[in-house]
Amino acid sequence: MSGFTHFDDQGRAAMVDVSAKAETERVAVARGRVVMAPETLARIQEGQIGKGDVLGIARIAGIMAAKRTSDLIPLCHPLMLSKVAVDLTPAPPDAVEIEALVKLSGRTGVEMEALTAVTVAALTIYDMCKAIDRGMRIEAVRLAHKSGGKSGTYEAE
């Protein structure tokens, strides 16, 4: 089959061959949030969670996840990322906002890496706080920005 597809000539799932694509600077930003009881957010901000620095550990988990996306998502290309930044911002009274920025110069985009970083950071917050708040919700994980490559720039509304 020609073009960029996840199917080979026999119709089987396959990794897309991107070797003919031009290398460009590619950037993706993803966002999400964890909604929790106000008391849980207060304990996170006060450093009163028994498992440690929730936001610091979630930041590291998000960065590590972005770097390992190809191990988690089938048919995703292993990439040499040039930058991964994960920001976690308390949003009183009851949420933590998460934003991941991922960059590289390459032949394929980094949307999946940014989305994976946000999701794993959110799951880390849940894991670290679940003993005191099992009702937490991970919400609104989405691509917020993408640039580079043939398809151009995308900005979420």
UniProtKB/TrEMBL annotation:
Catalysis: reaction(s): (8S)-3',8-cyclo-7,8-dihydroguanosine 5'-triphosphate = cyclic pyranopterin phosphate + diphosphate
InterPro entries recorded: MoaC, MoaC_bact/euk, MoaC_sf, MoCo_biosynth_MoaA/MoaC, Mopterin_CF_biosynth-C_dom
Residue ranges constituting the Molybdopterin cofactor biosynthesis C (MoaC) domain according to the UniProt record: 15-149
Annotated metabolic or biological route of this protein: Cofactor biosynthesis; molybdopterin biosynthesis
Entry's Gene Ontology molecular function annotations: cyclic pyranopterin monophosphate synthase activity
Subunit: Homohexamer; trimer of dimers.
Name of this chain's protein: Cyclic pyranopterin monophosphate synthase
Organism: Roseicella aquatilis
Phylogenetic classification of the source organism: Bacteria, Pseudomonadati, Pseudomonadota, Alphaproteobacteria, Acetobacterales
Gene symbol of the encoding locus: moaC
